[in-house]
Amino acid sequence: MKIKIIFFVVFSFLSNFLFAQEDTLKKKKGTLTGSIVFEKDTIPHVELDEIVVFPPLKFKNRRHYRRYTKLVRDLKKVYPYAQLAKKKLDQMEKEFNELETDKERKRYVKTVEKQLMDEFGDELKKLTITQGRLLLKLIDRETGSTSYELLKELRGSFSAVFWQAIARIFGSNLKSEYDAFGEDYMIERIVIQIEHNQI
Asked: Quick one: CA torsion of 165, 171, 173, 177, rounded to 10 degrees?
């Protein structure tokens, strides 16, 4: 009889202990990660997103602060177009180089131009002059070529000169190059923060 009581007490204690362990395991939350073995020691291996840290900005007055916030707003609007331009240009360049004759290439460029105008023409016409200038700079940043060079390559010298003249009338320059460490430092800073979802 004593054995049965001892067995019952031990069994009930163990069952409560085991259920408590199970509940504790269920309550713990975590993430399953990869691991690497380094000198017979297993170390969790987690890839972290890059974090970019800039020194805090100090503005001389409210006017400078407003100019900065306007620049941020304008860049958020035009940066996706610059990324799209790079993507479309890469795709177009592959297809363009596969064409054999100049006639086919001219027809292809006109077809792509019409598609882009149909898809984005109305949106791009709504950009302000400042946003247009920023877009020209960002296209150079993303593609490594100025808008003038791209026009000259795809549409020819005459077209590039014509559109450069039109741009100059409105105070823009298709030949403007992106200088991330000089005059365009603030643009570069904001773009990097946009890319890292910090703004």
From this structure: 170
Bridge partners of 37, per DSSP, are 42
Comparing CA positions, the residue from 141, 96, 88 lying closest to residue 115 is: 88
> pLDDT tens, 143-158?
888 888 888 877 778 8
Contact in structure between 88 and 116 (CB atoms under 8 Å): yes
**Residue 179: DSSP 8-state:** -
pTM for the model stands at 0.69
Angle at 16 between CA 11 and CA 18, to 5 degrees: 90
pLDDT in tens, 116-131: 788 878 888 888 889 9
C-alpha dist (Å) from residue 41 to 36, 38, 44, 187: 8, 5, 10, 45
Two tokens at 41? 């020691």
Q: Which two tokens stand for residue 63?
A: 């006017």
Report the pLDDT averaged over residues 164-184: 85
Instruction: Please give the full DSSP string across 67-107, using - where no structure is assigned.
Output: HHHHHHHHHHHHHHHHHHHHHHHHHHHHHHHH--SHHHHHH
The amino acid at 183: E
d(CA 172, CA 132): 8
Say how many CA atoms lie within 13 Å of 167 toward its Cβ.
19
Could you give the CA distance from residue 195 to residue 198 in angstroms, rounded to a whole number? Answer: 8
What distance in Å separates the CA atoms of residue 114 and residue 50, rounded to the nearest whole number? 39
Nearest to 191, CA basis, from 86, 89, 80: 80
